[in-house]
Amino acid sequence: MSAAMLLRHLWRRHGAALLLLAAGAAFFQWAITQVVPEASQTGFVRELFDMAPAPVRVLFGEELVANLSARGFLGFAYVHPFPLILLGIWAVRVATGALAGEIGRGTMDLIASRPVARAAQVAAAAVAVCAGLAVISAAAWGGTAVGLAQRPLEGVAAADLLPVAGMGLLLFTSAGAVALLISARSREGGPAVSWCAGLLATSYVLDYLARVWSVIAFLRPLSLFRYYEPQRILREGVAGADVAVLSAVGAAALALAFVSFDRRDL
């Protein structure tokens, strides 16, 4: 079984889910462009934000609250829980299903009996995770581009959101590598899914709480979501330090996944 055959195997298992996730991401971002308030409507929206409690304002982003604009709303759409969940579902589903899931179903014995190196199995899973995330991210940005073509908004172009979509892709590629590491060390898909989903949720909540609660603000760098801030990306561009941290975490986790899977008993 070659690496190409492994990828085809993963496509058969997860291809339909990928199409649904990509369609959901595209529709969500397109819909956001259709409901973003015009400049003449931001006064009413500002009044609503002013009445909201501080934790809610932090969730939306202080930059958005302070400077309401179409750019701000579209940037928030890329850090809304819905698109993050779509990307997270793919990263966790494929990473855990490709290694731990195959072991739990008993199909890993059949795969391992073929002349294919264990490293090729991890590599195929990594390629599938990254390719799927790229498809979902591209679909999301495509939804934004189509929406802005249908309803142009002042002060924003589809190209402005490309760096945001790219950093979202990098964020979940890093998270997918961590999920692969967990999968490489697990014997069943269920526990691996629980661990991966729990870590992602904890990382998201930690980033939020660290922004709201100054006592634990020093813990915020431990969250991967700390390095993905669409509002700041739109204002200042992509920070090299954020790219470096996410890339380093992803590379380290992937390297450990190769080592762990190669040394473990199947």
Structure write-up:
There is one protein chain. This protein has 266 residues and is mostly helical. The chain has one domain (3-263). It contains twelve helices and no strands. Helix 6 (81-105) packs parallel to helix 9 (162-184) and helix 8 runs antiparallel to helix 9.
SSE map:
Blueprint: H1 3-35, H2 42-51, H3 54-60, H4 62-66, H5 70-77, H6 81-105, H7 108-112, H8 118-150, H9 162-184, H10 189-212, H11 230-236, H12 240-263
Helix pairs in contact: 1-6, 1-8, 6-8, 6-9, 6-10, 8-9, 8-12, 9-10, 9-12
Largest sheet: none
Arithmetic mean of pLDDT = 86
Task: List low-confidence stretches.
Answer: none
Structural Rg: 20 Å
Total domain count = 1
Strand/helix succession: HHHHHHHHHHHH
Bulk shape: globular
First-residue to last-residue Cα separation = 17 Å
Number of helices: 12
Number of strands: 0
Residues in β-strands, percent: under 5%
Q: What class would the helix/strand composition place it in?
A: mainly alpha
Percent of residues in helices comes to over 70%
What can be said about this structure in brief?
The chain starts with a helix and ends with a helix. By secondary structure, the protein is mainly alpha-helical.
Provide keyphrases for this structure.
mainly alpha, globular
